[in-house]
Amino acid sequence: MKKIILLATGGTIASAKHSCGGPLRPSLEAAGLLEYIPQVRDICEPYARDIMFLDSSNIQPEEWGDIARHIYGALSEYDGVVVTHGTDTLAFTTAMVSYMLRGLQKPVIFTGAQLPISELMSDGRKNLEAAFAAAVNGTPGVYLLFDNKIINGTRAVKMRTMGFDAFQSINAPVCGTVDSKGIIFSQPQPQSGQPQLIDMLCPDVFLLKVIPGTNPGIFDHIIKMGYRGIVIEAFGVGGLHFVKRNLAHKVDMLCQKGVAVVIISQCLYDSISLTVYEAGALLPDCVINGRDMTAEAAVTKLMWALGQTGSSQEIAHIIETPLCGEIAG
Q1: CA triplet 170, 147, 7: central angle to 5 degrees?
Q2: What is the pTM of this model?
Q3: Where are the beta strands (DSSP E) in 153-298?
Q4: CATH 3.40.50.1170 in the chain, residues?
Q5: Cβ contacts of residue 306 below 8 Å, gap of 6+?
Q6: Could you report the per-residue pLDDT of 134-143, keeping only the tens digit for each?
Q7: Which of 102, 103, 1 is nearest to 47 (CA)?
Q8: Model confidence at 272: pLDDT above 70
Q9: Do 101 and 142 form a contact (C-beta atoms < 8 A)?
Q10: Is 319 helix (H, G, I), strand (E, B) or coil?
Q11: Alpha-carbon distances, residue 211 vs 153, 225, 233, 273, 314 (angstroms)
């Protein structure tokens, strides 16, 4: 049977209340999680290892690198990897790990839960069992498995705070499903080249969602704070207001100061096009078209690109080149 390892990072699935009526915090070890799903021993040899015990709100760029390195190290010994993770920042982690782990030949399945696995109505057992089954399936790539959906790690967005159907695949079909027929992969995450770990990143990236009346002075502060990149969630297909408060002028100033600027849409679905309206066409040529990327995918990809190079041209090339399904090919 295949050897599948569970790498645990904490999150709701491993949480418990440490006092009567107190808040949840991660406490259950990876081996303890396995005790709730004894049936997986019928399909694989399960192993368990703890990486960290964190609420996912505390998983930040430094932890992304740790998680990717643990996964990469495990892939030489195991046939697949399952990672448990809190749901709040799970889509950021799966996106970043997708960029860091290139040319995968084995599956990496992230999952979690909306309720601790120890609770009666928890979705944790179902999600974790399905994650092991998906790992046994052997389809290479980085995936987020939740509520019977297998989502490309760069296309997932958390949509619900409480509902079990917490994640959706944005601007791309799900990669696979879980049903009575088992694990079915129909749209696997694209992989090419040889397996490698590229874990350098630069965390100095800011995400700005513009609103009507956004003060252009915010961009001066972004420069003063030392940010090297910014992802701007623009209106519609990529517009920023330029009457009364000229944001386009400030975006040009950012580029002149060496800050990489990626434009995406506030709308979850469809792509941007900076030539449709004057509000987009007035933006300087230096802006990078984020096309149909999610905010999670764009932010992490810009951090990752800045970790590889300081060249504005090379950064733009990395952002605009499809790597693992994060933008339409």
Answers
A1: 95
A2: 0.96
A3: 156-158, 167-169, 176-179, 182-185, 196-197, 205-209, 229-234, 260-265, 288-289
A4: 3-197
A5: 201, 202, 204, 205, 228, 229, 260, 315
A6: 999 999 999 9
A7: 1
A8: yes
A9: yes
A10: helix
A11: 29, 21, 9, 19, 30
Topology, domain 3-197: Rossmann fold (3.40.50)
Instruction: For domain 205-320, give the CATH number.
Output: 3.40.50.40
Tokens of 269: 């679905």
Nearest-angstrom CA–CA distance, 231 and 262: 5
Per-residue tokens: 60: 């930040």
Of residues 12, 111, 139, 294, which has the active-site annotation? 12
SS (H, E, C) 18-49: CCCCCCEEECCCHHHHHHCCHHHHHCCEEEEE
| Residue 203 DSSP SS3 | coil
Q: Which residue has the tokens 């790990």?
A: 97
- Give the whole-angstrom CA distance, residue 241 versus residue 244: 8
- Residue 93 annotated as catalytic: no
Q: 95 and 20 in contact (C-beta within 8 Å)?
A: no
Half-sphere exposure of 86 (CA within 13 A, CB side): 23
- For residues 25 and 34, the answer to whether their CB atoms sit within 8 Å is no
CA 251 – CA 286 distance, rounded (Å): 9
Q: pLDDT tens across 274-319, in order?
A: 999 889 999 999 999 999 999 999 999 999 999 999 999 999 999 9
Q: Where in the chain is the domain with CATH 3.40.50.40?
A: 205-320
- Residue 130: the pLDDT is 98
What residues contact residue 311 under an 8 Å CB cut-off, 6+ apart? Answer: none
DSSP 126: H
* Nearest Cα residue to 215 out of 173, 183, 258, 250: 250
Largest CA distance in the chain: 66
Residue 73 pairs in a beta bridge with none
